[in-house]
Amino acid sequence: MPKGQSKTDNIIQPLLTIMEKLRDPETGCPWDKQQNFKTIVPFTLEEAYEVADAIEQADFDSLPDELGDLLFQVVFYCQLAKEQGMFDFSTVVEKICDKLTRRHPHVFPTDSALVSAEKVKQSWDAIKQSEREQKQQFSLLADIPVTLPAMNRAIKIQKRVAKVGFDWPDLAPVVAKVHEEIDEVMEEAKHLNTEPEKYHERVVDEMGDLLFAVANMARHLGVEPEQALRQANQKFERRFRGVEVCAEQSGKSIDEHSLEELDAYWEKVKQQEKAK
Hints:
This protein has 276 residues and is an all-alpha fold. It has helices at residues 13-22, 30-34, 41-56, 63-83, 89-103, 117-134, 150-162, 171-189, 196-220, 225-250, 259-275. The protein folds into three domains: 13-103, Helix Hairpins; 150-223, Orthogonal Bundle (Helix Hairpins); 227-275. 67% of the residues lie in helices and 0% in strands. The chain is extended. The relative contact order is 0.05.
């Protein structure tokens, strides 16, 4: 290796070359050649979630593979853009390097006083706000992606408006709002049996308000709701698998059990977990 050259200097080039070959009009992969910006978005979201899942499961042996899959998504977008004469991978690298340098004046110094984490965050927010204004994005909410998971987007919206004081000062009114929204859901739900078509959309609307309020409560408690819900999903799945084991041991199929019997299994599994 030449002196002064890092082994990572050209490490991305083989991946870029593979991507070009996959998209080759004559010899490329039929599936890859059919894709466009919109069609690969669902795969990008899926890969991002798989990275998050590997981290949450502490599966660090799998994490390099998952990060590679996510990086491939970035390279795919860059290849599509390169084919259309818009930008390429080097443009993306230049953009993020410029942004990180611009948003970290405490590291790439223009102001040595920016040393605390809080000051760093304040500086970051101020720089982002300036960038939004330069892009003529006059709404505080203009650059929050609509494709984010709904719970994550709710948190981003709430954090953004809180910066200008549009927020409750403590937890009590937040909790009261959750109870208020529950009451409003139940008020509309009372009519579902008699007029389902008329009231279904009203219930959907009120449930949306309730979920938004719950996200706000999580934010005030310092809880990431998307992560908390994933953990709840995992816990439910683990316990229900325990219920299935209990049902199998009883000699009856699970659908032959009454709800009371299944509830008893559920409580048994919960107690077993607590005893560990």
